[in-house]
Amino acid sequence: GTRLFERSTQHVALTASGERLLPLARRIQRLLAEAESAVRECRDLPTLRLGITSAAYLPWLDEVLSALQAHAPSTSIEHRFASSPQLVRLLRSHRLDAALIALPTEATGLDVVELDRMPMCVTLPSAHPLARKRSLDLADLNDQPLFWFERARQPAFFDHCERVFQHHAFSAKRKREPADQHVLLAEVAAGRALALLPSSFRALRQRGVAYRPLAQGAELSIGIGLATPPDATALRRVLMRALKGKL
After folding, report:
1. pTM of the model as a whole
2. Which tens digit of pLDDT belongs to each residue from 185-208?
3. What is the mean predicted confidence (pLDDT) over 49-56?
4. Which of 26, 58, 212, 236 is 20 to 30 Å apart from 191, CA to CA?
5. Phi and psi for 3 in degrees, rounded to 5?
6. CA dist 24 to 2, 31, 51, 98, Å?
């Protein structure tokens, strides 16, 4: 019932009420366009191709996938595990729609939002003498064999850890870390070597394996980020809603 226009045979002008409504109307128009885009991009997407880092165990992953599937029941969700550099390459070549990558990772040209951060803990045989301690320091591990990943798997994170190791004069003898998480834990249980792993691994119960906090765990922490192409605004918003509800 409010007059918005002053009309005559020569021109049309906004009333004072119309002037006040105009910027709000433009905002509403933008929000409606974004909402329509988000629904179209996610609900009508035949397949959502999601990459997942193999560098860390994500205890909330199943819940997030279920939430995404509930939001877009007609969308098939395909997930692929790989190293973060591989996932970044797949995103840049448009062979993935989004990815959960380990941080730090070189991801120039992509939008990355950090979701989670996991301190490192010590993974060791439950019968190992060091397992008697409630927490450990890097100095405790200097004379122990240690499973460690190759730089090619995660260059940026590898270099970050090297700087922390140098700062604490840590130089344990390293053994090549198995890429498969369950093989790695079996090797630790067998006493082949110790490992430094994200604290989320504590949720994986393995006979003969113990986990202990590490004094430098926060310095060596690994982040988990959502990486998307810069033009995937609507998809990123929907993914963030599903992720924030479960983290």
Report:
1. 0.75
2. 999 999 999 999 999 999 888 899
3. 92
4. 58
5. -75, 125
6. 15, 11, 39, 33
